[in-house]
């Protein structure tokens, strides 16, 4: 029960800190896909790409990790004369993926929408970068 209460407290605390700002999402609308290809945060994340039947490219820059929760049970027995020790143990683990899927919808070389999904936060680090705009002379 204590583990459950702690997990609920931690999850609530993390969720309270994770904030997605609409202005960060709007900054990508209409940007050339090249700005996304050169953005220094997103290029560090694994990316998957799909194209819908209507030609919309969907990219997911996954910023996730596997969280393991393990319970260990161990005990030892000592022989009556104290010369032998036997240890018995077992572990039970469960895992889950936590984090943010940074999903971009792209058509004709322009970003239509940025839709972070999961436990996400946005700030200036996920916006299009001035460096790109300077490289293309904008």
Could you give a short description of this structure?
This protein is α+β, with helices and mostly antiparallel strands and 138 residues long. It has helices at residues 2-17, 22-26, 33-37, 130-135; strands at 47-51, 57-78, 85-107, 110-118. Strands 1-2-3-4 form a four-stranded antiparallel beta sheet, with no helix packed on it.
Q: What is the global morphology?
A: elongated
Structural class of the secondary elements? alpha+beta
Count of DSSP strands: 4
What is the mean predicted local confidence, pLDDT? 81
For the largest sheet, list the strands in their spatial order. Answer: 1-2-3-4
Number of helices: 4
Q: Provide the gyration radius in Å.
A: 23 Å
Poorly predicted ranges: 1-16
Give the DSSP E fraction (strand runs of 2 or more residues).
35-45%
Order of helices and strands: HHHEEEEH
Question: Which sheet architecture does the biggest sheet show?
Answer: 4 strands, antiparallel
Describe the 3D structure.
By secondary structure, this protein is α+β, with helices and mostly antiparallel strands. The protein has a domain at 20-65 and 98-135. 23% of the residues lie in helices and 43% in strands. It contains four helices and four strands. It has helices spanning 2-17, 22-26, 33-37, 130-135; strands at residues 47-51, 57-78, 85-107, 110-118. A four-stranded antiparallel β-sheet has the order 1-2-3-4, with no helix packed on it. The chain is elongated and about 85 Å long. The model is unreliable at 1-16 (pLDDT under 50).
């Amino acid at each position: 029960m204590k583990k459950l209460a702690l997990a609920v407290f931690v999850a609530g605390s993390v969720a309270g800190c994770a904030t997605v700002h609409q202005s960060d999402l709007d900054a990508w609308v209409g940007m050339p896909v090249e700005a996304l290809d050169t953005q220094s945060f997103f290029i560090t994340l694994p990316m998957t790409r799909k194209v819908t039947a209507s030609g919309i490219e969907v990219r997911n820059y996954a910023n996730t990790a596997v969280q393991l929760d393990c319970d260990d049970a161990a005990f030892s027995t000592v022989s009556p004369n104290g010369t032998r020790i036997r240890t018995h143990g077992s572990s039970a683990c469960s895992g889950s993926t936590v984090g943010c899927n940074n999903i971009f919808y792209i058509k004709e070389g322009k970003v239509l929408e940025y839709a972070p999904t999961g436990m996400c936060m946005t700030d200036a680090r996920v916006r299009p970068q001035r460096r790109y705009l300077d490289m293309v002379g904008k």
